[in-house]
Write a structure and sequence with these properties.
Blueprint lengths: L1 H6 L6 H14 L4 H6 L4 H14 L5 H10 L1 H6 L2
Length: 79
């Protein structure tokens, strides 16, 4: 249920946010990616980057560039 997932997208617990992202991926709800790319937790950001890369989502190229520019550690680790 998209409404249920959206309700918890900003949860305090990074594990919950990661779970929401993974559930969103399973449900095909790509709107979760934008928030996940900006998430304060590197694990959530990494999962978003992985989703974009594995599914080759060109619609997120701009957000991906922004995420890399804002998080230099991504470039260093090759995530």
């Amino acid at each position: 249920d998209a409404a249920l997932l959206a309700k918890h997208v900003h949860d305090e617990d990074a594990k919950v946010r990661l779970g929401i992202l993974l559930a969103s991926r399973q449900a095909g709800l790509r709107n979760a990616l934008e928030n996940a790319l900006k998430d304060r937790d590197p694990g959530v950001r990494r999962a978003a980057l992985q989703w974009i890369g594995e599914e080759r989502l060109p619609d997120f190229a701009k957000q991906l560039d922004n995420a890399i520019a804002e998080n230099p550690a991504i470039r260093k680790t090759g995530l």
